[in-house]
Design brief:
- The complex is a heterotrimer of chains A (about 100), B (about 725) and C (about 120).
- The radius of gyration of chain A is 12 Å and the shape is globular.
- Chain A has about 100 residues and is α/β, with parallel strands linked by helices.
- In chain A, helix 2 links the parallel strand 3 and strand 4.
- In chain A, about 40% of the residues lie in helices and about 30% in strands.
- Chain A has one domain: STAS domain (Transcription Regulator spoIIAA), CATH 3.30.750.24.
- Chain B contains 24 helices and 21 strands.
- Chain B has a five-stranded mixed sheet with strand order 6-8-9-11-10. A five-stranded mixed sheet of chain B has the order 19-12-13-21-20. A five-stranded mixed sheet of chain B has the order 14-17-18-16-15.
- In chain C, about 40% of the residues lie in helices and about 20% in strands.
- Chain C has a five-stranded parallel sheet, sandwiched between helices.
- Chain C is globular, with a radius of gyration of 13 Å.
- Chains in contact: A-B, A-C, B-C.
Chain lengths: ~100, ~725, ~120
Amino acid sequence: MIEFQQPAPLRLDLTGSLTIYEVAEAREALRAAFAGARDGDWQLDLGAVDELDSAGAQLLLAAQRHVREAGGALQLNRAGDRVRELLALLRLNELLPGGDAHVQ
Amino acid sequence: MFNDEQWSQLLRGFIEEGRDLAKQAEEYLLVLDQEPDDEQAVHGLFRAMHTLKGSAGLFTLTPLVNFTHHLESLLSTVRDGERRLTAPLISLMLRCLDEIASMLDLIDPDSGELPVDEAHQAQLLDALAEQTGAPRAIAHEADDAAEDCARRGTLERCVGCDAAGAWHISLRFHPDLLRNGFDPASFVRYLGRLGEILHLETLAEQMPDLVEMDPESCYLGLEIALCSSASKAEIEDVFEFIRDFCTLRILPPDSALDDYLKLIQDLPETDERIGSILIASGLLTEHELAEGLALQAEVGDGLKSPLGSVLVEAGMVPPKAVNAALAKQQSARERPNRESSQIRVAANKLDELINLVGELVISAAGAQLQAQLQGSADCIESSQTVNQHVEAIREAALKLRMIEIGDTFNRFHRVVRDVSQQLGKQIRLDIQGADTELDRSVIDKLADPLTHLVRNAIDHGIESAEQRLAAGKPAEGRLSLNAFHDSGMIVIEVSDDGRGLNTARIREKAIERGLIDPQATLSEADTHMLIFAAGFSTADAVSDLSGRGVGMDVVRSAIDALRGSIEIESRPGLGCTFRIRLPLTLAIIDGFLVSLGDEHFVIPLELVTECLELDARLDSRYGYLNLRGKPLPCIDLAAHFELPSSAQGRRNILVVSLGRHQAGLIVDRLHGELQTVIKPLGLLFQHLQGISGSTILGSGQIALILDVASLLRQLQQHIDHEFRSPQPRPDLMGS
Amino acid sequence: MSKTILIVDDSLSMRQLVKMTLTGAGHQVIEAVDGRDALNKLTGQKINLIISDVNMPNLDGIGLVKALKARNEYRFTPIVMLTTENEQSKKAEGQAAGAKAWIVKPFQPQQLLSAVEKLAS
């Protein structure tokens, strides 16, 4: 189960799990959100995300690329321990909280 | 597949092989004792244990497998340069080799059972573990792998090692991976338990844009550098569940490649196929081989790329590995040729052959004699040809029995090491002439006397380090074994640079024991020879090292039994040399035939220096002749053996030399040279002095073979007796 | 991390072995005696891994896999099948149905634990 909220332009709050079960739905929500302002500097708040798997990480990566292609940026904020653990395991540095600044 | 008998035979073969390997291992260890960095010895030693373990496994001799496994593991750390073989470790390993040797002896070839002394083994292994600080357990938990990666190191270092020292793992996932409930992250987490992930990169090169992608498909790939002591198969095993959902490539660390190449070279020479060689080395997994073979078959056109190329192109093995495997294959193919240049022959079969050759020599001689009696020129020529061939066969047959004395000499490294340690002396053993060949039966019978002499030298001859230093000598004593051929005999010397024989004390003791008369004056050399007298011993305490005070007379009789002789050269304070002379063979003799009346005798040809005619005669059986101004002690053999001699006619003298002694043997007629087979004397005649064997002449007559050494001794005794109770000596003039 | 695992096997001793092994490692175990029982017990809770025997009455392992693929909340749940050597023919059938991971009986408890680590979501 996943829910998206957009409290502000260029900001998305995710709630729930982002796993293989949710990625299809999540992709739709992201696509819709990015549609108007792809080149913006987006903030994804993951404070309420309790679970992330590789499918979810892959989607986040795709999202970041999608935005970057248009000249924008994507930053993950308030990632909890489990989310951070998975991202670190896969050395997905661009996605790690701190975002683009840490691209290696 | 095999019946019981075949299996037994195979097992016996293994036991022999095992003994060889254990012996080789001991030799290497002793080399390493002197030269701790000798790479060849280290590798050889490892290989010996490795092969032994492997073969033992074939026969499910579990205790042997387990025991050798520990040694093999230890040696692999030595081979990798992580451990040095210290002296205590070498001593311990020698004891382990002894245990292996006794295990081999305990194997029942019929049942394949191997009863072991568990307690003793456990003791040895514990000592080994203590020395090396290694845990005894063979199996480890995957959990520990990450923590003590640095300590384990069969192949590489960990903590702080660079990417070049790590396994390279490459994964490309199938799009359906995620859909089927698999998550790459779980596998990466599990992989991390095998070691340290130095580097990881998640790739998503194939991933389409967010809008086009199928979020439930997997577009990811992984490139991982893993520092681990796990094997390739163990790493592959991590991904066992998803083998069908990814392309997996595992390459060994660059730095470890050399070790793998060595592993390939060290493989036992059993397998020939590239795939098998690579799998055996751990560089290829079974799964990969199946994949490689499938790829190979795919090419089509009936053309098959060599498997090695296929494997390299698919990125499964580094090119160097394939080259090494090819080289191994080549040597495995050549090996049968090399190996077939040597075959094992049962000793009794060889003896039988020699016997038959002996009979052949006699019958050929008989045939030649007949031909000569017949007078037919053609016959004579024919039988001469036969004799030439018989001679050649004889030479070749005797050569079969010859083995290098080096093996026997080399065993003494161990003896010297153990005994000198026991006594707290520093002694080093030098060996020369190791390639000198002797008849195998001679070598067998030499072992005991040599051991006696060596132990004696260590026990009594060579002083302790302090004493040597006080005497201005180097602290380390030198014991040397030397062997060489000299005028048809083989000479073996046991020398030391110790304190030499104490002539005065020997004389004292001999007088004490009534062996010589107090008035008698003996030369130094002759006094020294007294130590061979029965019951003689100057050791104050009976030491168990030199054989309970019995010692030298046992040596003497052993050498006599070999138709040999022994002499001593000793200089006080400088050292002592025992020199043994032996005939090259016990079986067939080159001799000089003589007769006394109707009786024929054979004298070993190598001992004969001249033949002279004799006009005069001795009044008694012993006497002296004037040989070119020097007195030559003589024996009138006819008188000695109490045979009627032909009263008329000229008699002859055969001058024989044995070592430094010369003597004349007075006989009736000389008949010239002959070769003939020695028939040993029956038990009844063993104690006959002066006769060492018999033979059958071509004429069918029996001739006795003279034991010259014994005759000379008797002559010497007589002379000494003369010295003790001086009597007017008959003086003879000879021509 | 503690996982929730469903063991489906008509053999009591097998279920007990698996339960003991996994709970010993800190996991939660739900037992079902056959495929039908399993489907009844799956009421929407999060299951990290399903371990199932092949030969079972009422609904066998393959039937269970098919059924699970058809249920929304379990369509991506990792499943590992337990099989004996003789049943290798079933493997093809099972794979076609969607069972992609297999463990051969008899197995060591350690194998079970590694499987959980590698496969549980």
